[in-house]
Amino acid sequence: MEITVMKFGGTSVANSDRMTAAAQKIAKEARRGRGVVAVVSAQGKLTDELIAKAKELNTEPTLREMDALLSAGEQISSSLLAMAVAAQGVPSVAMSGWQAGFVTTGSFGSARIKKLETERVTAALAEGKTVIVAGFQGICDGDITTLGRGGSDTSAVALAAALGADICRIYTDVDGVYTADPRVVKTAKKLDGITYDEMFEMASLGAGVMHNRSIKLAKKYNVPLEVRSSFSDLEGTIIKERYPLEEKMIRGTACDEKTAKISLVGVSNIPGIASKLFSTLKDNNIHTDMIIQSLGADNSWNITFTIPVDNAERALYIAHSLRNEVGATRIDCDKDIAKVSLIGTGLMENPEIPAKMFAALTSAGVNIQMISSSEIRLSVVVAEADAKKALSAVHEAFFGV
Ligand code: ASP
Ligand code: MG
């Protein structure tokens, strides 16, 4: 049986009308004779609301109980959507993550999928049912776990890989992947296709479509993805390994405002300083993105790095705890920054590309605080207040108005 996996995000199941619209898409696909597995997120902002409720009762709830709570959001969606699909005259069964066979590691709040036991899903498909699976969750030693925020994309891709689906469609509130977030840059253009690697960078650098972990997984198992709108029938953007016919260098832009930077000023000019700092950050599961070391006064060095803003307090605490050991004279933290990036392939092969990007930022009157480059991305850190202006300027320089 040919299988389609369809993933519906929070806005696509936000209320009964959206549920019915999603159910109609599922029913239509099932009537084409395909096996349909749908994966759902919690409705609208329900996950955030549940987190807020928990914090009202306990400022530091246990992660195990948080996962039990948050997983309920997706279970509400899957049961309701299964009812909506049945109302379209198509047999349907709802499954929680563990019923669908998601076995994970035990790290509550950020569990990893260890294996997927798909027997129950396959049996339901064989009985002619569409299967509606609660995303974002699994089980470990009898306890419910969640995969981390945005994890439903990963659930969908994992199911598509395990079932050998020929397409995994991600339904969202935009009709594809754009050259910039169309909610921010009105002149952004929709892409017909993008490679896994480019999409991974876009997602990691703040494009706001899909979870980057799910794209890694799709690449690993070669699952073709399509990002499309749940509000229309338009074709979306296909994400796959290669686009041989249109080897474009520049693919898109992205902006991440949820980033912060920490600087250690005047650290000792001896071996082992960076190693000490970044291994301690790693041991604390803090992911650093841009790292710059530059010569400071008196033969000392300055080290600056960026981290997700949610980790800023912890990273700052770590930097202070190492202050004497690394010999820093001052430690600064700035949360009011944003990272604006250009994404493509072979970016640094062409010196015109960085020159053009920096010229665009200068014309827009944006000051660049940090720069980092690789073959697939060129990122600058700017003041958060300049973020939208900077993104628009870079987008206009490369994609026109
Ligand atoms: N509901 C979860 C979240 O908001 C998972 C997801 O939507 O992918 O993070
Ligand atoms: Mg999401």
Notable features of this structure?
single chain, 401 residues, alpha/beta, Carbamate kinase, VC0802-like, 2 domains, eight-stranded mixed beta sheet, six-stranded antiparallel beta sheet, 18 strands, 28% strand, binds aspartic acid, binds magnesium ion
Please give the structural blueprint:
Elements: E1 3-8, H1 16-31, E2 35-40, H2 46-57, H3 63-87, E3 92-95, E4 102-104, E5 113-116, H4 119-126, E6 130-134, E7 137-140, E8 143-146, H5 152-163, E9 167-172, E10 193-195, H6 196-204, H7 212-220, E11 225-229, E12 237-240, E13 250-267, H8 273-283, E14 291-295, E15 301-308, H9 312-321, H10 323-326, E16 330-344, H11 352-363, E17 370-373, E18 377-383, H12 387-399
Parallel strand pairs: 1-2, 1-9, 2-6, 3-6, 9-11, 10-12
Antiparallel strand pairs: 4-5, 7-8, 11-12, 13-15, 13-16, 14-15, 16-18, 17-18
Helix pairs in contact: 1-3, 2-3, 5-7, 6-7, 11-12
Aspartic acid binds next to loops.
Commentary on this structure:
It is a single chain. The chain is α/β, with parallel strands linked by helices. It has two domains: 171 residues, Carbamate kinase (3-Layer(aba) Sandwich), CATH 3.40.1160; 147 residues, VC0802-like (2-Layer Sandwich). Helices cover 35% and strands 28% of the residues. It contains twelve helices and 18 strands. The strands form four sheets. An eight-stranded mixed sheet has the order 3-6-2-1-9-11-12-10, with helices on both faces. A six-stranded antiparallel sheet has the order 14-15-13-16-18-17. β4 and β5 form a beta hairpin. It is globular. The chain starts with a strand and ends with a helix. The mean pLDDT is 95. The protein binds aspartic acid (ASP) and magnesium ion. Magnesium ion binds next to loops.
